[in-house]
Amino acid sequence: MDRLKTLGASPKVIGHGLTADILRTLAPDLIVSYSYRHIINAAILALVECEIVNLHISLLPWNRGADPNLWSFLDDTPKGVSIHRVTPGLDQGPLVAQREVQFDEAVETLASSYDRLQGEILDLFFEVLPTLLTGNAMAWPQSAGGSFHRLADLDDLRGSLLGPEGWSVPIYVLKDRFASSKCSVRLVREEDARQLWIWRNDPTVRAASLSTEEIPFSQHMVWFARTMADASREILIAEQAGHAMGMVRFEREGPVTSVHILLEPEARGRGLARSVLSAAINASERRSTKLRATIRSNNAPSLALFRGLGFETVDDGDPVVLERD
Length: 325
Known about the structure:
Elements: H1 2-6, H2 20-26, E1 30-34, H3 42-45, E2 51-56, E3 64-65, H4 68-74, E4 80-85, E5 95-100, H5 110-134, E6 148-149, H6 158-162, H7 171-180, E7 184-187, H8 193-200, H9 203-208, H10 217-229, E8 233-240, E9 243-253, E10 256-263, H11 273-283, E11 290-295, H12 300-308, E12 312-315, E13 320-324
Parallel strand pairs: 1-2, 3-6, 10-11
Antiparallel strand pairs: 2-4, 4-5, 7-8, 8-9, 9-10, 11-13, 12-13
């Protein structure tokens, strides 16, 4: 408000619904919707004779509607801020200005990302304010597609996602919790032995493994029996709608636990790896130790997966070694 006054403006704040009487009384030169929790309907828009814009903290058309910043992280969509003309369609009006914003998800919290976007949207607003006041602002239609969320979309998840940290929850923790909500994990059972053997011998799995040789069934069963009997080892089976789709294996050696993941062929390329790994880490009895992943340097998807869950490189040779506390 003070910044607007220094520019010679006389801003008025309306905290309730905009009405025809207010428009007649104020005769505004510019209307700005900013953190405004009321819908400006078509009847009111028909009475507006000046420019009317909305300041939205997402890179439209992504994340129209409620909680745009949070959903940009949960849905892994582009992030940024947008200023658009207000039309009857919620957050669908032509764009006047837009800026993409990058975040380091390893260090950012939901609160700090929100503060960053608020700063960006205000900076962008004051950049285009002169053209808005003169009516010379250029505008262009939003691109097709995008996404939309209602307030109710978060109702069942809000408590479990924000956790005890509330809005100060680290972004990578927020995403871990969301990923965990998409699948379930359980301890391995004796009847899983053959399925694990099939998964371990899948050509793609063997090509990405440190040992690429095919595993005979008899050798696998010896390994399986030892694993089941070893308290330092743990295998969790990931399921979706009751269907087993992969496993995460933990092997503790002193203060460090090695983590290994594989998915069945049908589960790959569907964005499930993060959900599986996150759910397993959260459920594992080994999660209180330092976690370590050892990955071939040419296995870019696995490297990105572990780094996206907060693992950091401690040895960038081949194989690459990543760790997370």
